């Protein structure tokens, strides 16, 4: 036989074809036999280790294909057939006696035939075990724990599709999401900029109500896979004043994880949010409520400024109990808490104001370009004699549509907190 895989039976080129015989150790005498087109599998009592591997598909594996340990041939494929239920492929392999000790209960086998090509816009990765397996197909294995119990008789192992799948460790979880646009097998799961896992499969829910993603956490899995952990999709955001997650334009979206500050019970299923949750409420500082007749362009995340310096953020918006007001929750950073007094005045800094007169013409007023485009809130505090007592947590202030000229002239001397976070 001459092929890219090599030459076998070379002596038959000179002497012609011949019939080889393997004698049985027992059985009744017989004078009639069936000649096989290929050598039969080794008997299970032949020296060495005989194993059974099961897989969803055979791939390009054939009888005689090598079994490799770190690219060293240590055995061969002896047979393959369908399982009794016709749902899986059963592969019989033989490990040479001198290499039998390499296999134990922690050993993982994978199909190393051909080339594995994976990639996206951020790069392409090509993997091949060896030139021999590229041509003839083959199976590779590795042992996770050398101290695990040894294998001395026929044993079943799973034959994985790839080395990555075979050697995968960590915690398996399931993530549900309404729409998996841009998410696929291999999408990373990250925490604080580090990959801690990835998506292994993406499929529709049985009732078609959403998408179910199976994932594996390979780092900090025990700490992350607990109740209270939140997951959300990170995508690029492009705007006139703010550009975020620009790297995902090339690499594609990823899933961000945020473990709870107080880890709960072990959990395997999580709901994935389409965007980042509002996390401002977790931060330290002074929480206040502003009351306004309408929302305007205010939204969570807008800046709260004092003399055009950001000192806080909008946390949440809700209707009042009688639905006649809009209640805006804000958070002032700890360092700037002393700036807010009972006499402070808040106003909507979004958009711009117009002043017109016959003699002075037309003038436009705006707090800042960012407030003009994104929306925001500003406040001022009266001079020392009129500023009042320090504001208390949860105190409510009116939110005015615009600032009075008098407020813009206030310039009290207020000591800020040093080293506050």
From TrEMBL:
Signal peptide: none annotated. Residues 48-111, 169-258, 285-345 form the Mce/MlaD domain. Its main location: membrane. InterPro entries: Mce/MlaD (IPR003399), PqiA-PqiB_transport (IPR051800). Keywords: Cell inner membrane, Cell membrane, Membrane, Transmembrane, Transmembrane helix. One of its GO terms (cellular component) is plasma membrane. It is found in: Cell inner membrane. PANTHER family: INTERMEMBRANE TRANSPORT PROTEIN PQIB-RELATED, INTERMEMBRANE TRANSPORT PROTEIN YEBT. This is MCE family protein. It comes from Pseudomonas aeruginosa. The lineage of its organism: Bacteria, Pseudomonadati, Pseudomonadota, Gammaproteobacteria, Pseudomonadales.
């Amino acid at each position: 036989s001459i092929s890219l895989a090599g030459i076998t039976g070379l002596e038959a080129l000179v002497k012609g074809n011949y019939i080889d015989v393997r004698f049985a150790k027992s059985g009744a005498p017989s004078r009639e036999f069936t000649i096989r087109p290929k050598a039969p599998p080794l008997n299970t009592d032949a020296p060495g280790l005989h194993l059974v591997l099961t897989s969803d598909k055979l791939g390009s594996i054939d009888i005689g294909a090598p079994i490799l340990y770190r690219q060293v041939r240590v055995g061969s494929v002896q047979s393959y057939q369908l399982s009794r239920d016709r749902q899986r492929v059963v592969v019989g392999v033989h490990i040479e006696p001198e290499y039998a000790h390499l296999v134990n209960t922690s050993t993982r086998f994978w199909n190393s035939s051909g080339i594995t090509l994976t990639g996206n816009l951020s790069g392409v990765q090509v993997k091949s075990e060896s030139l021999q397996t590229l041509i003839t197909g083959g199976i590779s294995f590795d042992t996770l724990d050398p101290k695990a119990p040894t294998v001395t008789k026929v044993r079943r192992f799973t034959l994985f599709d790839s080395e990555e799948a075979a050697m995968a460790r960590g915690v398996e979880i399931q993530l549900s999401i309404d729409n998996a646009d841009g998410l696929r097998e291999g999408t990373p799961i990250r925490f604080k900029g580090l990959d801690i896992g990835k998506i292994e499969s993406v499929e529709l829910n049985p009732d078609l109500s959403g998408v179910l993603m199976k994932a594996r956490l390979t780092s900090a899995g025990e700490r992350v896979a607990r109740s209270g952990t939140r997951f959300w999709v990170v995508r690029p955001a492009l705007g006139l004043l703010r550009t975020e997650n620009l790297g995902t334009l090339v690499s594609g979206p990823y899933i961000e994880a945020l473990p709870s500050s107080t880890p709960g019970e072990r959990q395997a299923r999580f709901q994935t949010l389409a965007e980042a949750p509002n996390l401002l409420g977790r931060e330290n500082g002074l929480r206040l409520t502003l009351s306004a007749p309408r929302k305007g362009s205010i939204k969570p995340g807008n800046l709260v400024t004092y003399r055009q310096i950001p000192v806080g953020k909008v946390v949440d918006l809700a209707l009042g109990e009688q639905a006649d007001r809009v209640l805006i929750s804000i958070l002032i950073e700890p360092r700037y808490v002393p700036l807010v007094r009972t006499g402070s005045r808040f106003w909507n800094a979004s958009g711009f104001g117009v002043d017109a007169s016959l003699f002075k013409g037309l003038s436009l007023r705006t707090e800042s370009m960012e407030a003009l485009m994104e929306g925001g809130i500003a406040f001022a505090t009266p001079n020392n004699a009129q500023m009042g007592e320090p504001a208390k947590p949860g105190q409510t202030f009116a939110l005015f549509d615009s600032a009075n000229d008098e407020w813009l002239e206030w310039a009290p001397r207020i000591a800020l907190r040093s080293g506050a976070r």
